[in-house]
Amino acid sequence: MICPWTAGLLVCVASGGLAAPSTFESVADGVYVVRDDSGQWTRNMSLDITHQVRAEYQAKKVLDLTNVPEDVWQKTQQVRLSAHFAVRDYSWHDAPAENGLDESFEIVLNGKVHTYPTNCGAPAWVGGRTPVFGWYDFILPKEEFTKGVNEVILRKAPGDKSDDYLYLCIDTTVPPANSYVAFTNNEWTQHALTIPGGNGEYMVRLLLITKSLEVTAVWRPGTDDRLDDPAKLILYRGSREGEATGEGLSLQPGQSARLEWTEDAFDLMSPMSVLAEASGPLECAWLDAEGKPGEAVRGPAAYFADLPAGRTLKPSGFVIKATDQPVTLKQVTLKGVQSCHPVAPMVDMAPAIAQPVGKPQTLKPACSGWGSEAVFQNDDLRARFSTAGGKLRMVSLHNKWTTCEMVRHPDDIALFMVEVDGKRYAGSRDFRIEKTELGQQSVTAVLRLDEPALTATLKVGIDDEGLRLGLSLANAGNAPVDFKLAFPHLAGVAVSDKPADDYYFFPWGGGIFSDRPATIRRGYGDHEALYQLMDLYSPQRGGGLAIRADDAEGWHKVLALRKHVPGQGEFGGQILGMPAAEEYQFVNPFEAVEGTSFAYEYLRRTRAPGESFAPADAVLWAHAGDWKKPMADYAAWAHRVWKFRPYPSRLGPIVHMIAAGWDGDMLYKDGAYRTDFIKPNTDCIELMSWWDWFPFGPWGTPIDKVKEVMGEGAWK
């Protein structure tokens, strides 16, 4: 194949294939992005970062500008290459003495080499501390780019030393298309972008800036307080102690005033300044990214403070203090260049909720139309399932409070997800219908997977509360099978017209109420008992959808939620805290599907031929308003299924359970269980539920011995 390098045309890249046109989109007024990644980084320090310490290890990113409109390209005043990465000096570990970031790396753009010191101000992972990664921009000449395919190589520069690492992040949620790696000798491949096997797209983008992003904000304090802030960057201005007067803000010695803004509001590659004008001398300091003041500097009545381009400090504000005499602060002028990286607004945890746009009907819950499809309906909700092609799929979920279709991606609604030997099987895609049984308010479908041989009995029903899903998964083969299960598994549902506008409730801590993209997974059981409720709601449409695990027994499980908005990074909250080794737990069960996804994950089970596992039923119901109504519904459910203490009442004298077996003590000794652990204020002995998850019992006791002590049935 002949591969001519022709501006504006698709060209052949290292593997011999054609580059895929990159995504082009507007991210702010006058700012556009060209990208292939979706902005997701899972922080897996093995699979999803490069470990470049020598020049031979090269990362190649191809960015195809074919989709950039000609008028945008002509208006582009500045092109920035933006990479999500970190540098790290590893001499603290490998060398006799720590030498700091003292090497270089290269960016090779269409054959042109640009060299940067590793201490250029890029995100730096220092020593053995918490890793620091982030987007960092390189301003490169526009004339070195083409409005077609561009090849960018990131590598360490040749040198005598090699203890500074370059860690380039990889978005593993997207398939590889325009990313390549050469570990040695310029032998390029897409098979795996890291030595451990991670793959996806390097997080390298182009930013096209078509206008000046310079901004000015002027604050004139006093009784007629005024703020001229066209870009709306200032979050706070004022003083706790000062007195507003007609001349300005009067500050006594030691009193201060301040301006505050988001630490990411201003461009680090451009200078910025503050001019504070007062009636006398001032003491001023910048606030760092955490809001802490830096070194205070005394200056004249008109004090000018500036920060250079290429700085590492991310200021979040400016403090102005009166020193030895009273002063009147008259005006503060802030100048800088607005960041070309969009700054998300602060989350409004309690958005105004509109009245529901719809009005539910009064209907008797019923199932109808079984054949090619079945419709389940009650007052608030209408669900439609299809049996086309011998597969059972949820194709519609209509919310009558919000009058909207919540299933936006029917092919991604798995209903349940099974993982066996590292491979995943979706109930709606990989299991075929074997037989069905129709009831007045329900349908029971027997679904079969041939290899591995599994039978799933899925019951779908409707009642006054909502849509109820029940599942039993059985081993239909001739040998024991290990499987992990996520049930239910609903991907990419939405209530608002734009899925990005939806809010969710996740029961972590006091509750997470947010509209931000996120992946949140928390373990239920052992040391953490969450509400078994998640919710999705639309402030604009006045209602939402709730989901509950109908589990009154407290099974170990993981509550999982992912909100995905293409091109936006996600908050990471995947802290499972489960008493189980990693091989017993699901890895994130969600693909990158626009909207919000929900699942309840169950730890790996082993089932002999003919044996089954039935997780808790799931209930889905539509509601008016935000999370408060489903939380009240959940409380009512809890009072139905659990016995609560009468009110008022006093707690008994038993204050805790004791985790017997810690500190080297054995539960079983001399042929009998020990009882000397029991104390007067101890309710019971905790029998170490994590025995189930390790190949040996506590402190190396062989499994056979544990089974002998506990009994075969108890072990299962």
Can you describe what's shown?
Helix content is about 5%, strand content about 40%. By secondary structure, it is mainly β. Strands 35, 36, 37, 38, 40, 41, 43, 44, 48 and 49 form a ten-stranded antiparallel sheet that branches. Strand 31 and strand 32 (about 405) form a beta hairpin. The chain is globular. The two termini are about 60 Å apart. Mean pLDDT is about 90; it is low at about 1-15 and about 690-715.
Distance between the termini: 60 Å
Average predicted local confidence, pLDDT:
88
Portion of residues in helices? under 10%
Radius of gyration, taken over Cα atoms and rounded to an integer in Å: 30 Å
Task: State the secondary-structure class.
Answer: mainly beta
Q: Tell me, what's the shape?
A: globular
- What is the count of helical runs? 5
Largest sheet: number of strands, sense, barrel closure: 10 strands, antiparallel
Number of strands: 53
Strand content: 35-45%
Low-pLDDT runs: 1-16, 688-716
What is this structure, in a nutshell?
This protein has 716 residues and is mainly beta.
What is the fold's blueprint, element by element?
Elements (H helix, E strand, L loop, with lengths): L22 E6 L2 E5 L22 E7 L5 H6 L2 E12 L1 H4 L9 E6 L2 E6 L6 E2 L8 E7 L8 E8 L7 E5 L1 E2 L7 E4 L5 E2 L11 E2 L1 E6 L4 E7 L5 E3 L5 E5 L4 E2 L4 E3 L4 E6 L10 E7 L3 E6 L9 E3 L2 E6 L9 E6 L4 E11 L28 E3 L4 E5 L3 E6 L6 E7 L4 E2 L9 E6 L2 E4 L5 E7 L3 E8 L4 E9 L4 E9 L5 E13 L9 E4 L5 E3 L3 E7 L8 E6 L4 E7 L7 E8 L6 E5 L19 E13 L4 E2 L4 E7 L3 H14 L14 E3 L9 E2 L2 E2 L8 E4 L17 H8 L1 H4 L1
Parallel strand pairs: 4-7, 42-46, 50-53
Antiparallel strand pairs: 1-2, 2-15, 3-9, 3-12, 4-8, 4-10, 4-15, 5-6, 5-9, 11-14, 12-13, 16-17, 16-27, 18-21, 19-20, 20-27, 21-26, 22-25, 22-27, 23-24, 23-26, 28-29, 29-30, 30-31, 31-32, 33-34, 33-39, 35-36, 36-37, 37-38, 38-48, 38-49, 39-47, 40-41, 40-43, 42-45, 43-44, 44-49, 45-47, 51-52
